Amino acid sequence: MPYKILIIGEDRGNLKLYSEILSLNGYEPLEAKSVFDGIRLAMSEKPHLILLDIEVTDLKEIEMSKIMKSEPSIRDIPVIVLYPFATKWTRKRFLELGFADCIAKPFGIHEFRRIINKHLPKGRR
Questions:
Q1: How many CA atoms lie within 13 A of 38 on its CB side?
Q2: Measured in whole angstroms, how far is the alpha carbon of residue 16 from the centre of its chain?
Q3: What pLDDT, on the 0 to 100 scale, is given for residue 98?
Q4: 37 and 6 in contact (C-beta within 8 Å)?
Q5: Angle (CA) 96 102 104, round 5°
Q6: How far apart are CA 52 and CA 110, in angstroms?
Q7: Which strand (E) or helix (H) includes residue 101?
Q8: Which of 64, 75, 92, 115 is the most buried (most CB within 10 A)?
Q9: Which residues of 41-69 are buried (b: 16+ CB within 10 A; e: fewer)?
Q10: pLDDT values of the chain reduced to their tens digit, one per residue, 125 residues
Q11: Please, what is the Cα angle at 64 between 58 and 68, to 5 degrees?
Q12: Residue 56: what pLDDT?
């Protein structure tokens, strides 16, 4: 059974790209076009990991960490932020907010896979 990875983002092109990359690497991608749809999908599907695609001005997505941490059924699912041109400072800020990691966009496929694999449950692959 492949790992389920939920991708949340409003950009349809990015969702399709991330889904294709994940599928080609043996994961089962799930897609949500909004944070609230993503939370509902996470509660029903229980993914192993969540990728949150954030644009520079998307402050409402940052509130997701608070919402998810308050919901017992999904609070332990790691959430990785995909953020444009992330710096050490922005990565530190996302970690302080409770996110598991931050991947700078644009990213290389090897780095993308390395960070995802780092946060997946061990012993399944």
A1: 26
A2: 14
A3: 86
A4: no
A5: 135
A6: 18
A7: strand 101-105
A8: 64
A9: bbeeeebbbbbbbbeeeeeebbebbeebe
A10: 899 999 999 899 999 999 999 999 999 999 999 888 999 999 999 999 999 998 765 566 667 777 777 888 898 999 999 998 888 998 898 898 889 999 999 999 999 999 999 999 885 54
A11: 170
A12: 60
Residue at 17: amino acid letter: L
Q: Within 13 A of 56's CA, how many CA atoms are on the CB side?
A: 4
CB 69 within 8 A of CB 97: no
Q: Tell the residue number behind the tokens 């997701």, with chain if given.
A: 64
pLDDT of the residue at 117? 94
Give DSSP secondary structure letters for 45-84. H--SEEEEE--TT-HHHHTHHHHHHH-TTTTTS-EEEEEE
Distance linking the first and last C-alpha atoms of the chain: 9
